[in-house]
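Subject — a protein and its fold
Fields — amino acid sequence, structure tokens
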Amino acid sequence: MITTDFMRQLAGYGLTTATILYHMPDHRHVLQSYIWQNYDLAPRFPVLHDFLDFWARELEGPLHSVTVAHSRLIRPAEIVNVNGVLTLH
């Protein structure tokens, strides 16, 4: 069975990690960090933007900054079709 994550990787998605710094709701001068990780498309990062829109709309801690790292885990050169089977005795 093929997983959804693998299908996304074949479609060009890569593993995206975002370090989000935000102000604590009760203590605005204190910063807290949150690590978010999901598969997303670089360089526009639509999944991350949807998450940040949700954050700004639903959560009380205002965002301070976001640092993003992205890596394509599967590259076209790494996938090779196999046309035969070799059996060793």
Notes: Residues 46-58 form the longest helix (13 residues). DSSP finds two helices and three strands in the chain. The chain has one domain: 4-75. The chain has a mean pLDDT of 87.
